[in-house]
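Build the 3D complex.
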Amino acid sequence: MAKIKRGRTKPCSRCEKTNDVLYRVRVGEDGEWIFVCSGCLDQVKPGNPHY
Ligand SMILES: [Zn+2]
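Done.
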């Protein structure tokens, strides 16, 4: 799991809230990367073996 912390705040790919700390998660078999907050990470993880 990659913990991304940069100077610039990014929006979460799922809830679209901006957050200082976002997690990079790979979704789908094509390896698309999204950035999600810790709250959404819990929602993404169970059905996502690729994170
Ligand atoms: Zn989120």
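The pocket of zinc ion is lined by residues 12, 14-15, 17, 36-37, 39-40 (CB under 6 Å).
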